[in-house]
């Protein structure tokens, strides 16, 4: 049942998005550089509070994940202006978690959602986001992990069970 994204819908959406985010991010209890060199910790947490050499407890990682998911949900809820299915919103939250709320809010996917496009059309837009810029060379390269993640998010967006792939 399509719904406007509100605080009341948040827990249902995050219950679907969270396992996908956790699977693809993995839990790394210390800081590391992601494939394009961004300092990252726990379940894909980035930001000015992430410093190389720091370790985190499982509880700290879960709190960071919960905060990051809430932030991704807030971006999706702010930018989506039409009712959507909870599973569509969950895919959008997973994408916004990974690419950033600004990327989601400026995406063709969002424009299609807000224009009332069919899910089969807007969900396919996720597959356009499989590349990342490698800072050292300034070139976008397709990352196999992003291809797998976007495929899972697309399946989720379409209301299908997503299956993690090795």
Automatic annotation (TrEMBL):
Gene Ontology BP terms: cell wall macromolecule catabolic process; defense response to bacterium; killing of cells of another organism; peptidoglycan catabolic process
Record-linked SUPFAM superfamilies: Lysozyme-like
GO MF terms, alphabetically ordered: lysozyme activity
Zinc is among the record's keywords: no
Keyword set includes Signal: yes
HAMAP family assigned to the protein according to its UniProt record, in alphabetical order: ENDOLYSIN_T4, SAR_ENDOLYSIN
Protein name (database record): Lysozyme
UniProt organism field: Dokdonella fugitiva
Lineage: Bacteria, Pseudomonadati, Pseudomonadota, Gammaproteobacteria, Lysobacterales
């Amino acid at each position: 049942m399509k719904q406007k994204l509100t605080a009341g819908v948040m827990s249902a959406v995050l219950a679907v998005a969270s396992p996908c985010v956790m699977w693809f991010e993995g839990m790394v209890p210390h800081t590391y550089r992601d494939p394009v060199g961004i300092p990252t910790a726990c379940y894909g947490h980035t930001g000015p509070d992430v410093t190389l050499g720091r370790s985190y407890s499982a509880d700290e990682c879960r709190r960071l994940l919960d905060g990051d998911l809430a932030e991704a949900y807030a971006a999706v809820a702010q930018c989506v202006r039409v009712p959507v299915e909870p599973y569509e919103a969950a895919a959008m939250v997973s994408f916004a978690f990974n690419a950033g709320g600004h990327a989601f809010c400026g995406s063709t996917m969002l424009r299609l959602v807000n224009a009332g496009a069919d899910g089969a059309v807007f969900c396919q837009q996720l597959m356009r986001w499989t590349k990342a810029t490698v800072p050292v060379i300034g070139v976008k390269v397709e990352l196999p992990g992003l291809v797998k993640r976007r495929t899972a998010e697309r399946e989720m967006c379409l209301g299908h069970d997503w299956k993690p792939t090795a």
